[in-house]
Amino acid sequence: MAAHETNESRQGQGQAQGSEGGGDSDTAARTHLSVAGLRARGWTAGMVRQLLGEPDQFRVNQHVRAAPRIRLYCVERVEAAERSEQFRAVSAAAARRSAAARVAARRRRREVLTRIAAEELLRRRVYAAITEAYPLLAQECERRLSEREFGPPPE
According to the UniProt record, where is the region Disordered (predicted)? Predict the structure, then answer.
């Protein structure tokens, strides 16, 4: 099912028809969005709980019947929420948190790599493990270790 699945109500049953149904999904009126569809539009789980609350419909998961029912939200209600000032504020805060998390992850990665590069004993252990696991790489491991100690060979 597409990440931004939408659905059409079945008459009299209160459930939704899947967009992969009888081949008319392109012509069917798209009236509901799944949580995956909301995520594709930039919503987070917290935003869904805070701004939309309870789903408008539930549908049985057609792929795994024992899985939780799929939560569906009316497109008109979603669009109205997206036009609100509250959505803009919550969305901006989520974007700032996401950007800060990416920056922090990059910083932690750089710090770990710097510590690894600075730790001679650890580097030797890593190259020893590589040599043991892959004997054909022993010469390359030795070359890299000696290059660290004495610098690259003159050309």
Answer: 1-28
- The amino acid that residue 24 corresponds to is D
pLDDT tens for residues 75-93?
A: 999 999 999 999 999 999 9
- The length of the chain in residues reads 155
**72 neighbors 59 (Cβ within 8 angstroms):** yes
Q: What is the DSSP letter of 68?
A: P
Angle at 136 between CA 134 and CA 140, to 5 degrees: 100
Q: Tokens 């701004």 map to which residue?
A: 51
**Is the CB of residue 42 less than 8 Å from the CB of residue 28?**
no
Contacts of 112 (CB under 8 A, 6+ apart): none
Place of tokens 């996401």: 98
